[in-house]
């Protein structure tokens, strides 16, 4: 009898050790370590700090939406002069993103996007400029891209600037136009109109020229700067350092904010489909998906108001390495998304209660976050 029980026990033990676990329903393995986040305030007392980036020597270039730009070198902050004189700060406009050329050491270029006044109209446009720094002054200022002056309500400019691994420049722009109502009867279909610059992610050379391999979109006979379309208000743009893909985040209406992986020539749906609804509660689309429209890899409902993206690549950030950080304007936190390839498997909330405008990984591996009310830059390190 004892021998029989021993045999049954051994068989059950062998089965338990060799059985296959369903990968879909398997429990998520616990995080092995929970690092302590330490926060230091580097700058405070500013207006909205929208754009910021680092020079090779570690200096921080940052701007205020109201049309001012600064350089932080060590503990010293100096205001820069020579900015464009047509910056329009009404509504959601102003001085927007700032990006240092990845080959800055050789060419000295820095890029900035801003909402611009246009002569002869009360509408606004969006400009992309590049410039060099001579001491504390912008020099060699060049406008390399303009979105037409058709933004009537002075909202949804985007806007982020990013470079891919081959050195091409990407610029995200919101749908602008007369309104931001979603649905097939929307009065604003800028994002679906490939003849307009609004509601798009543009790809160009670092001087603003059209790359020969840009897509030829329906109705066009040649490539334009448009790389992807159907975007509502894309305020996050980052190159995935592992795959080279361009990742983008955008505001939907009430619910349905998105993270997308951009594909050349693809349509991302706005205003025809959305995972959200209009602010007045009306339905945007019966289904959030549509043939010919790329589906987001991640959505938020309620809306987080995603603004700024950063991939964590530094070993100093321990278990965060490989995560995607997303600023949150509406729900007031910094989102840390854990990834399995191109899938989001877990979200953690950081800096809860802070309206996060931008997030960057610094050359020293720490994380810089700009938050609002007042405008501040925080430095995050893990212990």
From TrEMBL:
Coiled coil: none annotated. Residues 48-379 form the Glucose/Sorbosone dehydrogenase domain. InterPro entries: 6-blade_b-propeller_TolB-like, Glc/Sorbosone_DH, Quinoprot_gluc/sorb_DH_b-prop. PANTHER family: ALDOSE SUGAR DEHYDROGENASE YLII, HEDGEHOG-INTERACTING PROTEIN. This is PQQ-dependent sugar dehydrogenase. It comes from Fibrella rubiginis.
């Amino acid at each position: 009898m004892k021998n029989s029980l021993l045999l049954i026990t051994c068989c059950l033990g062998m089965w338990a050790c060799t059985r296959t676990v369903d990968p879909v329903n398997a429990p998520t393995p616990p995080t092995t370590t929970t690092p302590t986040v330490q926060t230091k305030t580097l700058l405070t007392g500013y207006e909205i700090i929208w754009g910021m980036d680092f020079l090779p020597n570690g200096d921080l270039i940052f701007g205020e939406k109201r049309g001012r730009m600064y350089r932080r070198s060590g503990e010293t902050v100096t205001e820069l002069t020579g900015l464009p004189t047509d910056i329009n700060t009404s509504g959601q406009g102003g001085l927007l993103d700032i990006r240092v050329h990845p080959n800055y050491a050789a060419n000295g270029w820095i890029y900035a996007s801003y909402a611009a006044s246009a002569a002869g109209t009360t509408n606004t446009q969006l400009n992309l400029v590049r410039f060099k720094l001579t001491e504390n002054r912008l020099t060699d200022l060049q406008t390399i891209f303009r979105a037409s002056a058709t933004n009537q309500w002075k909202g949804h400019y985007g806007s982020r600037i990013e470079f891919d691994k081959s050195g091409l420049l990407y610029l995200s722009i919101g749908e602008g136009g007369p309104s931001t109502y979603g649905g097939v009867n929307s009065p604003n279909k800028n994002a679906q109109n490939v003849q307009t610059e609004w509601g798009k992610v543009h790809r160009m050379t670092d001087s603003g020229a059209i790359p020969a391999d840009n897509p030829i979109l329906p109705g066009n006979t040649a490539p334009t700067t448009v790389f992807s379309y159907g975007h509502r208000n894309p305020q996050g743009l980052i190159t995935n350092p592992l795959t080279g893909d361009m990742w983008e985040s955008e505001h939907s209406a009430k619910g349905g904010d998105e993270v997308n992986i951009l594909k050349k020539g693809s349509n991302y749906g706005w205003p025809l489909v959305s995972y959200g609804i209009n602010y007045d509660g009306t339905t945007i689309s019966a289904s959030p998906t549509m043939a010919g429209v790329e589906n987001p890899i991640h959505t938020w409902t309620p809306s987080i108001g995603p603004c700024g993206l950063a991939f964590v690549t530094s070993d100093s950030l321990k278990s965060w390495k490989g995560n995607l950080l997303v600023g949150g304007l509406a729900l007031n936190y910094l989102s840390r998304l854990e990834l399995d390839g191109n899938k989001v498997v877990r979200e953690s909330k950081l800096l809860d209660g802070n309206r996060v405008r931008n997030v960057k990984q610094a050359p020293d591996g720490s994380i810089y976050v700009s938050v609002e009310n007042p405008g501040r830059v925080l430095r995050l390190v893990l212990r």
